[in-house]
Target: Amidase, hydantoinase/carbamoylase
Amino acid sequence: MSNLTINADRLLGRIQELGGIGRDAQGRLVRVAASDMDKLGRDRLVGWLEEAGLEVAIDRIGNIFGIWKTGANESQAPVMLGSHIDTVIDAGIYDGCYGVLAGLEAIESLKEAGFAPARPLVVAAFTNEEGVRFSPDMMGSLVFAGGRDLEEALASVGTDGTVLGKELERIGYAGEHEPGFLKPHAYVELHVEQGPVLEREGIAVGAVENLQGISWQRITIDGEANHAGTTPMSMRRDAGVAAARVIGFLADRAGASSTRTVATVGTIAFEPNAINVIPSRATFTIDLRDPDEMHLREMEAALVAFLDKLAASAGVTVQAESLARFEPVTFDARIVSLIEDGARGAGPSCRRMTSGAGHDAQMIARVAPSAMIFVPSRGGISHSPAEFTAPDELVAGANILLDVAARLAAD
Amino acid sequence: MSNLTINADRLLGRIQELGGIGRDAQGRLVRVAASDMDKLGRDRLVGWLEEAGLEVAIDRIGNIFGIWKTGANESQAPVMLGSHIDTVIDAGIYDGCYGVLAGLEAIESLKEAGFAPARPLVVAAFTNEEGVRFSPDMMGSLVFAGGRDLEEALASVGTDGTVLGKELERIGYAGEHEPGFLKPHAYVELHVEQGPVLEREGIAVGAVENLQGISWQRITIDGEANHAGTTPMSMRRDAGVAAARVIGFLADRAGASSTRTVATVGTIAFEPNAINVIPSRATFTIDLRDPDEMHLREMEAALVAFLDKLAASAGVTVQAESLARFEPVTFDARIVSLIEDGARGAGPSCRRMTSGAGHDAQMIARVAPSAMIFVPSRGGISHSPAEFTAPDELVAGANILLDVAARLAAD
Model:
């Protein structure tokens, strides 16, 4: 199959075209899940699926499937390629859309080339991967994989007070299929890296072998407000200084560690937040990730120990609240090898890597062998109009997807 | 004069009565400068000045003076006792008001006792010491001392868009006297400590010999926003971590120093302030104070050096903007001694101390020998309804004020 390639112009043209659909008055890309803008993008995708001769199926959570099956293979579990086409607010054009359109492109090219797969091939666009309007993110794939009750998900209330189920009906994407009506033989998701590793190392393709575990916490430190001028340093219970100690500790430990743990404090607030008042309270969030559950737990335990010590030494009280906790996902070793083989065959450099972000693939991995392919993100930037991957990199990634899909479909 | 004492019941009653004037619908004390609530407090004070037989004079910045002069002493420079009666939002009842009402009480008691001063005695209530609505704080005394142009001060625009001069006219306190029309022979300000030192040491009275220098800065650190999951620790330019390093440095240096430098970071903000995004920007304020100008400068220089090193090592850019800078004030040695003598004569324990907060006395010290007397603040708390000083402590402080005023008026 290695002599088959995708239609590069068609793929690149569709990425640009879909990226132009769902812009607001300021020109921002805002195809937020189950919105009017999302409907415009979905309609265009469905049009392309139909043009490619695929059977279109929508499930009850709004996931869209384009199915290529033949009389000879329709009893087999399909090979699924997919991602999502909903976006954040003021998004780039590649995140998610690239994986869906490249999946379609791979299937369409195989079909046009007269390839005769032993299994059906399916491209999937999962509902609400971004989680901007309805929580949680990766909802469509989570429901598809049986990880969340359908009715509960449909009852989700959005940030704007709308109900997801009603919105899906309104935009015409409350389908009839039960989520999970397809049982994938394998799932492959092609995605922009959204991180700096591939660009920094000059490597064209990432064979994603696992996905980091995530631990999100909110920390609240209570000290004592006091006058900044009249309170000697030794008599202070400064919640802000205590927060700074935690931030420094996390950066030091994650920075010095031989593990791949990353730690981020992205939000913070002081109370009363006055220039001449010692903070009585500091509230901040912690985002810890590691591809190894044991290392993630070690970091969490080290944090607990540090917070205990800090509470005693700084005269503050510390509360920690878990906001989210996902164990790491290990992708299917055979598919990861097929990705490496595909890269080797076609020429681009390739490395095994970890996904730092969450993706639909982590949900589908619950029910089918899964893996991901990454291509470089310029400057590591994503969730921004500045998101960019060069055309030749997009094409190289899609050709590997085609290659892997063809091999899996021959199983 | 040491056998004269104030009328304790009258003083305590007036403190309570003034503290009940200018409450909002939630019961909060809100006599913010030049507001309708401030007018209510001013009107009550003027009533008491008139009842005491003092001549009431208002200057153009709204400072209120109650003057006791006789035909025999009217050509002499007066001894001035004073503070302010404007408050913060949700204030306690002692800050400022205690000094004004105790000044009135000392003069009224001397007058009633038939004391014959060689100099006039004046009680002053300075406009807008708190600086909540109009900036800067200590404005009335600063203008009185010639440290700020009158017209500029009257043109100050408040946080609510009002103009100070218009507001003073509106509430009837745009007086006719030029600020500085009185040239004090000496100035004494009695005030609650607003800090924990006296209570902690079990000492009744502070003879305030100096007032800390203040350096206020706003620091802006720019790094690079990036995905919290996909950006390795070694590739980050985390503005939030850099800010935490600064906060830790200040607490460490001020805490370990043998100087009396205090350092506070009271406000902070991250951008974009999202749980899963490395902060691109951190903005925070620094409040440095020391009674010794040299030590204050050393701290400022150490901060500059630290920020320079940080910018290089953390890959961030750092901007520092000065928001305010006052050199320390040394009060008049003779008045400080008189305060100590007064305490010794009357019995309460006394220690020399530094004022950590700014006060009108630091402005008047530009034009006349000045000093301050402190009494304990329960828990060091101020600018809060929880502000409290016990009645016997209030009375003891006022009696020392009377004693010192009488001695100075005999000059």
Notes: The mean pLDDT of chain A is 95.
